[in-house]
Amino acid sequence: MVEGEGTVEGSLTKTANGLAELIDRQALQSKLRAFAEEAGGRGGDLKVRARVLSALKAAMKDARSKVEKLLFEDGSGTACASRLSDVQDELIRAIHEFAVEFVYKAENPSSAERLSIVAVGGYGRGTLAPGSDIDLLFLLPYKQTPWGEQVVEYILYMLWDLGLKVGHATRNIDECVRLSRTDMTIRTAILEARFIWGDEELYSELVRRFDHEVAASTGAEFIAAKLAERDERHRRQGASRYLVEPNIKEGKGGLRDLNTLFWISKYFYRVRSGSGLVKAGVFSRAEYNRFRKCEDFLWAVRCHMHFLTGRPEERLSFDIQREIAIRLGYTQHPGMKDVERFMKHYFLVAKDVGDLTRIFCAALENQHVKHAPGLSRFFTRLTKSGRVNQKHIKGAPDFMLENERITVAHEDVFEKDPVNLIRIFALADRENVSFHPEVLKLIRRSLKLINAAVREDAEANRLFLQILTSRNDPETVLRRMNETGVLGRFIPDFDKVVAMMQFNMYHHFTVDEHLIHAVGIMAAIDRGEAGEDHPLSTDLIKTIQNRKLLYVAIFLHDIAKGRPEDHSIAGARIARRLCPRLGLTASETDTVAWLIEYHLEMSTVAQSRDLSDRKTIEDFARIVQSMERLKMLLILTVADIRAVGPGVFNGWKGQLLRTLYYETEPLLTGGHSQVSRDQRVEAAKQELAEALGQWSDRERTAYLERHYPSYWLRVPLERKVADAEMIRAADKARERFAARVATHAFEAVTEITVLAPDHPRLLSTIAGACFVAGANIVDAQIDTTTDGFALDTIFISRELPDDSDEFRRGNRIGELIEKALRGEEVMPETVARKAAAKGRMKAFRIEAEVLVNNSWSNRYTVLEITGLDRPGLLFDLTRAISDLNLNIASAHVATFGERVVDVFYVTDLTGQKIANIGRQEAIRQRLVQAVDGEEAAPPPAKRARRTALT
């Protein structure tokens, strides 16, 4: 093993960290010595110990304050981590010296009464974050003695009393060597061992024996274990390095990945520092400088996180991202917030860490493959003869396959023809092979060859379109193009969104990762692999006349994110400029631009409009204009929502999209029946009458008069039958309250229908009960019967996988709703208590906005309310609407991360739209107050009864 501290630049020689200004150990020791001498040399006296501890705490607090100040001044993360490590070293040395001189002084020490204090783990690398654990190895010559046990105990208790989290082991050299042979964690810890204080000969003996007896013959084994450990860590943290709340330490592209490279380099190449990797041919000087910059940035972020939160916080969550951005000096630019600029820098660094990992593995493979053929995970697979298997690719003389990985036939292949920088990716997709690590290095070093001439080259654009529209695995190939920098160079507009994050809880990935993932989902639908989840999209894509337009549109749909203007409009403008370059005709370009400009329209209408309202469908059909566009927009919408992140798309959203599609289709094909509204109502009544054939004629006739036209037109037959049976049973039992539960596994929702006497606060009470029960309402339909009852149907998000379990959950929620309606549960107080316990999402700021619109429906005024989501919001909104003496006909709840869009179709108490401008303004003001959680004015003294919706 080679000595050295664990940062890439580490060595036993201290860097110029201003240590003398941080903590003066000699002055500190003099102070501690004075405490003992004042007590007659009795350092173990409890009063002396208390004074010693107080002095140590003051010194540590003062030093850490200075370290944080220096971090703000010079911004160096590695210097900060090293300074904190140095401070810790000095404290441990001071404690040890006081212990052996005044507490457990050995007058005639034997050879066994020796002790070496060794830093291991992250501390062994000479770097600490403010909240890091202190990992120590107390090294003994051969066995523990009472003196050694007492000294170790004293040091540990002092460190614990200082508020430090200490990991420790007390072992002799033989134990260290033996355990490191069988335990990879212990082996890694000893690899990073760094002498702090005590007997240095013991430490040197450990280093010598570990190097000769453990490390010398186990390089391949160590590398395989560390890479496997890294893969498992990535799996736990999330396979993508572009998660919007990354783990700065353990996540993909984080500090632990750099640590892994250092461990392997120290073990395999026997280097003392990062510059040794340049001499070993692993990194070029430029690549090594990138390594140092990445490490410095990640350490700066981590140290700021610990200082800010006062705890070892490793997850860069939304709650602290903005404050960290401010601490690091980021400012807001047009189209991008300060926090978004900071996070873009973070993701670019994470991308660089991934590049460096591939470069490092390529060097291991090229230099040591014949010595370590067993590392098949990253090393070349050899033929039985031990030779590399190479063959040329048919029709591509500039490229060849080496052990089923594509590489170049000669070094100047890209200089000779820069279009080869695109062609190699097309070949990799065609041959379904991965890339040789060395060729990825060569590609990155050749990026400057992609200039305007290459971008306008017809063959280069044809090859790119071939990659983009491939039915094989375009997602993986595009991701490789992005990671090497080719994609951003070839499509400059794409380069602007590389590593760009959006500061919200809705999008799980950076913009570039979202676009690439969306292409992958489109390809999966195209291959028929998503039939169970997206049956309509899977069927429709087979009928699309020009499938390449879908791929181009999905690839470009968010390419204008981060600009001051609407990204849909700006993206359409980019498409009009870029599509002709890709070889699309004028009409094809127009279709792609339209899809991009309206790529949010179908999702918005489906989730926040009443799809049973004919005006909604007519307005949407007027925008779409053709069946081909409708089909493409549906498929594009599904792929876009699915690519936002896991769990964002669900069966309920799919059902809404399918409903919108099926309702719009007749208008676009000319097949919509032009029968009058009255005729359609009568047809619906007759359909139900036939379904209730077991009822008597008198019962059927009476029941058909209990509903208003809106009910007959929007409720499906299956639900009409269930409603009829529930109301009939309630009548026979003389019950005024009834509830019915139905689970919908495919749509991932549970339907709860409530029958109760009509009341202005009915929906508000239901919303409050659902909130208290932990149920999330996604949609609601409100109907009133002619005899004064309300029939409200709500749809809540499904939580349990088993239908029977979910059905029982639905019944429990129904029972709570019934208790609330009977007055047995006081909703406002209960909701207030639970909302206070949950708190708000303080990291985000969204200004409340209320739109009062009379043009979206022929019969209702539509209230669209946008704002920051919070516990109990729907309850407060429905209460406010009730206070405003408005009838709710339907409610549609959509949540996009922290942003909520709630839409209510309402009328006044006479069943009319809200036409008065003054009243519209009063509604806006009151609902903005409700979104912000402000107390409303007392409701009118006269409680208005909700009238029927006609």
UniProtKB/TrEMBL annotation:
GO molecular function: [protein-PII] uridylyltransferase activity; phosphoric diester hydrolase activity
The keyword Nucleotidyltransferase appears for this protein: yes
Cofactor: Mg(2+)
EC number: 2.7.7.59, 3.1.4.-
Region of interest (Uridylyltransferase), ranges: 1-387
GO biological process, any: regulation of nitrogen utilization
SMART domains per UniProt: HDc
Keywords: Hydrolase, Magnesium, Multifunctional enzyme, Nucleotidyltransferase, Repeat, Transferase
PROSITE patterns the record matches: ACT, HD
InterPro entries (UniProt xref): ACT-like_dom_sf, ACT_dom, HD/PDEase_dom, HD_domain, NT_sf, PII_UdlTrfase/GS_AdlTrfase, Polymerase_NTP_transf_dom, UTase/UR
Domains (record comment): Has four distinct domains: an N-terminal nucleotidyltransferase (NT) domain responsible for UTase activity, a central HD domain that encodes UR activity, and two C-terminal ACT domains that seem to have a role in glutamine sensing.
Family (UniProt): Belongs to the GlnD family.
HAMAP family listed in its UniProt record: PII_uridylyl_transf (MF_00277)
Name of the protein: Bifunctional uridylyltransferase/uridylyl-removing enzyme
